[in-house]
Amino acid sequence: MERTLVLIKPDAMERKLMGEIISVYEKKGLHITALKIVKPTIDIAKKHYNEHKGKPFFQELINFITRGEICALIIESDNAVEIVRKINGATDPQDADAGTIRGRFALSKSENAVHSSDSVESAAREIAIWFSDRS
Ligand code: CMP
Question: pTM for the complete prediction?
Answer without folding.
Answer: 0.96
